[in-house]
Known about the structure:
Blueprint: E1 2-9, E2 12-19, E3 29-30, E4 36-41, H1 42-46, H2 50-61, E5 67-76, E6 82-84, E7 93-100, H3 103-109
Amino acid sequence: MTEVVRYEVGAGTVLVEVADNSYGVDHPARNEQGILDAGRRLEDALAAVRPAAAAVVDAMREIAPEHMEVEFGVKLAGSAGAVIARNTADGHFVLRMSWSASPDVLSEEE
């Protein structure tokens, strides 16, 4: 079974379908339509995964790749915010971030 969770986003709201036994979905408020209110903005929920992405990038910079791509799934979890999914297929969002070394950095290394 699934539940519908509402997040505030920008000037409106977005509805997200989540498994009814999802972490963080057990106690949010439910409105008259039966929709669970996450009680937070989507932007704030997604902020929870930024430190993990930054840590991966920082750790990989030590080996100085010419090109780096990081991909992970993010699940929305009601009042718990956002969590990194166990795989990208489980995520509500698949984030693919990519960096290329600038020509200045490459010429300094030669």
